[in-house]
Amino acid sequence: MNALNTTAEALLDDRPSGSDGADQMGHLVTGELDLSHGVALYLDDITVSFDGFRALNKLNLTIDAGELRCIIGPNGAGKTTMMDVITGKTRPDEGSAYFGSTIDLLSMRENAIAQSGIGRKFQKPTVFEHLTVFENLELSLKADRRARSAVFFRLSSEQLDRIAEMLTLIHLHSQAQRTAGLLSHGQKQWLEIGMLLMQDPKLLLLDEPVAGMTDEETERTAELFLSLEGAHSLVVVEHDMKFIGELTTNGPNAAKKKVTVLHEGSVLAEGTLADVQANDKVVEVYLGR
């Protein structure tokens, strides 16, 4: 057991029952998200094998609360498998994974992980193409589904304000009544991100979010992600190094932003963008191609 796992296990020791995340003594409660120690995600010695091939090989990764982390690496490096483990789609052969200091991701199913505050965006946008942009966001509201299906259900003023704010944030306010299927590829990507954000996730996993976007759409997406930094933890997996540069050299914490390079299922290098670009091993296996 390494230091990361020891830390996570130690944080789990204080866990009596309660409904607000802590009892009167301030102890943490299992299953209640706690980010007070400043870490949103712990992956410790995660190993995943498929028919003898190790997709992840004792992977260790820590994402801080509110951090925007970019992850790069060649095809087959384990980036998608890593996100599959975090979201419960794939169970590792070994290792541990915690969301915050109290939520054991490996003991949960996919839907429970999503409800705990982890949102994932895949490469291909998935929206309800026959519905309007507004209706897509409405369906994504974090609310009682039974009430929403009632004949006389009406959105509250707070919910309407929330949708309006999201439309502005994702640059689709002028497209609110447009059928989602008629949006450009980039606009569909923004809409799906908005749908995830309507669930108020604390951790967002974004898989190649700017693939297929125009230069203008890519620039706006960078602005969007930078605006989310701090309020959410973001893990961005991407091949577009110009986009990575926009994310890691801008914002209030630009000097401290890390880029993680995966190779053969493990962390090959980690540091600032300049650090990894100057790393001979990274150049050899990825950037030099």
Describe the structure.
With 289 residues, this protein is an alpha/beta fold. It has helices spanning 3-12, 79-86, 110-116, 133-139, 145-148, 157-169, 185-197, 215-228, 241-248, 273-277, 280-287, and strands at residues 39-50, 53-64, 68-72, 94-99, 103-104, 118-121, 203-207, 233-237, 259-263, 266-271. Strand 9 (259-263) and strand 10 (266-271) form a beta hairpin. The model is unreliable at 1-30 (pLDDT under 50). 34% of the residues lie in helices and 21% in strands. It is globular, with a radius of gyration of 20 Å. A six-stranded mixed β-sheet has the order 6-7-8-3-9-10, sandwiched between helices. The protein has a four-stranded antiparallel β-sheet with strand order 2-1-4-5. The protein starts with a helix and ends with a helix. The protein has eleven helices and ten strands. It has a single domain (3-127, 183-287), classed as Rossmann fold (3-Layer(aba) Sandwich), CATH 3.40.50.
How is the secondary structure organized here?
Layout: H1 3-12, E1 39-50, E2 53-64, E3 68-72, H2 79-86, E4 94-99, E5 103-104, H3 110-116, E6 118-121, H4 133-139, H5 145-148, H6 157-169, H7 185-197, E7 203-207, H8 215-228, E8 233-237, H9 241-248, E9 259-263, E10 266-271, H10 273-277, H11 280-287
Parallel strand pairs: 3-8, 3-9, 6-7, 7-8
Antiparallel strand pairs: 1-2, 1-4, 4-5, 9-10
